[in-house]
Design a protein that fits this description.
Blueprint (H helix, E strand, L loop, with lengths): L16 H4 L7 E2 L11 H13 L9 H15 L8 E4 L2 H12 L5 E6 L4 H8 L3 E6 L1 E3 L2 E3 L2 H9 L3 E7 L11 H13 L3 E5 L20 H5 L1 E5 L13 E4 L3 H13 L8 H12 L1 H25 L4 E2 L7 E5 L7 H12 L1 E2 L1 E2 L11 E5 L4 H20 L1
Parallel strand pairs: 1-13, 3-4, 3-7, 7-8, 8-9
Antiparallel strand pairs: 2-10, 5-6, 9-10, 11-12, 12-15, 14-15
Helix pairs in contact: 2-10, 3-10, 4-5, 4-9, 6-7, 11-13, 12-13
Length: 391
């Protein structure tokens, strides 16, 4: 490989949320979706050049920014975006909250497919709306959509919006064109708009293919708002840069108004520069990253087969967040994660964060780190769970 993903950069003491939030000494964090890899060199070089300028006033997002976004999605995913469809903001979660504010009245229902990213719940509730859950159906080592239940939830006259996670966090699915089309057909029948969170869109494992929801068909594009950012795939979350893509002018006007009401319409000087650098020069780095992540996943899966065969590792199609069925341990998810932290000093996410019912009996493990660091974390998990089985 041209890029060294085995390098163990020390992050503790750098005001890293992932590393410095745990107050206990010696904790190995494998939780929040943040990679332990240094960014692509083209991003560092672009930021160093900007820092050398020495002045960091209010930022004007240039036309070259929009061109980079348009070229990237056209070249990699066959999705042709027009310049005026793009609204920028500081992150996908602020984007999601602003879209809900723009398109939903308080008291209306927003549909999600659980288990799902925890901020979906807070964005809905913070806007005075209700959460409607359609639980994904577990099938072997993966998940599928319960379309009958999905349609029942869409048919509720109070349901006006559907938050899609594509690729899905934490269920690890990269939805197929047929699945995306079917979801849209149901939403169309019942007057439900689709908001597609596609922040993990570049993190796709071999044999899987990400399709932007809006690129499936004109009908999908006309019924959807897409949320995207390079922050997960290029590890730039702290630079706070994201895009909302919508082809309907009136809907964009309402969303833009909500961005201003929520005061998330301005960005810092570094976010646009990092996005341009990533999209214009980071593709080779990204391809090697995905290869490395897939080898991490295979290594983890083999470790569980050999050392923790009582646990079930879900198939990883997208993201770097591995979903593990721990029900055989006999502990609730919150109890298990607390025990792993106290006894093993390894921090993972409890499944209940992603749905109290759908996530119970699971944990989520972040494998976006050097392989040696991941293996250390897995050894700590195995040591704790070996003690558990002896009891």
């Amino acid at each position: 490989m041209k890029y060294n993903f085995d390098k163990e950069t020390i992050r503790r003491g750098s005001n890293s949320y992932k590393w410095d939030m745990p107050k206990e000494d010696g904790v190995l964090p494998m939780w929040v979706a943040d990679m332990d890899f240094e960014v692509a060199p083209c991003i560092t070089e672009a930021l160093e050049k900007r820092v050398a300028h020495g002045i960091f006033g209010y930022t004007l997002v240039p036309e070259s920014y929009y061109e980079a976004v348009i070229r990237w999605f056209s070249r990699r995913h066959g999705w042709d975006i027009q310049r005026d469809w793009i609204l920028y903001t500081s992150g996908v979660v602020p984007a999601m909250s602003s879209v809900i504010k723009a398109l939903c009245m308080p008291g209306e229902k927003v549909l999600v497919q659980t288990p799902v990213y925890n901020c979906f719940f807070s964005s809905i509730l913070n806007n005075g709306c209700q959460v409607a859950e359609s639980e994904l159906r577990r099938t072997g080592d993966t998940y599928e959509i319960d379309f009958e239940d999905f349609e029942r939830k869409c048919a509720d006259e109070k349901t006006t919006l559907f938050l899609l996670c594509n690729p899905h966090n934490p269920a690890c699915r990269v939805w197929s064109k047929a699945e995306l089309r079917h979801m849209n057909d149901i939403c169309r029948r019942h007057g439900v708009r689709v908001v597609s969170d596609e922040i993990h869109c570049e993190l796709v494992m071999p044999g899987c293919r990400y399709t932007p929801f809006a690129a499936v068909s004109d009908d999908c594009q006309n019924n959807s708002i897409a949320l995207s950012s390079p922050s997960k795939s290029f590890n730039t979350a702290g630079l706070q840069m994201a895009n909302i893509v919508c082809n309907d002018a009136e809907t964009r006007r309402r969303i833009n108004r909500a961005l201003n009401i929520n005061e998330v319409c301005d960005v810092n000087p570094f976010g646009p520069i990092a996005l341009e650098a990533a999209y214009n020069g980071g593709e080779e780095w990204l391809e090697e990253l995905n290869q490395y992540l897939y080898q991490n996943y295979l290594t983890l899966r083999k470790f569980f087969e050999d050392r923790l065969p009582q646990l079930e590792v879900m198939r990883l199609e997208g993201t770097y967040l591995v979903w593990v069925d721990t029900k055989s341990i006999g502990l609730r998810s919150d109890e298990l994660t607390e025990r792993l932290l106290k006894e093993g000093k390894v921090l993972v996410n409890s499944g209940t964060m992603y749905g109290k019912k759908a996530g119970e009996g699971y944990i989520r493990i972040n494998i976006a780190c050097p392989r040696s660091r991941m293996l250390e974390g897995l050894e700590r998990i195995a040591a704790v769970l070996s003690n558990n089985t002896k009891e």
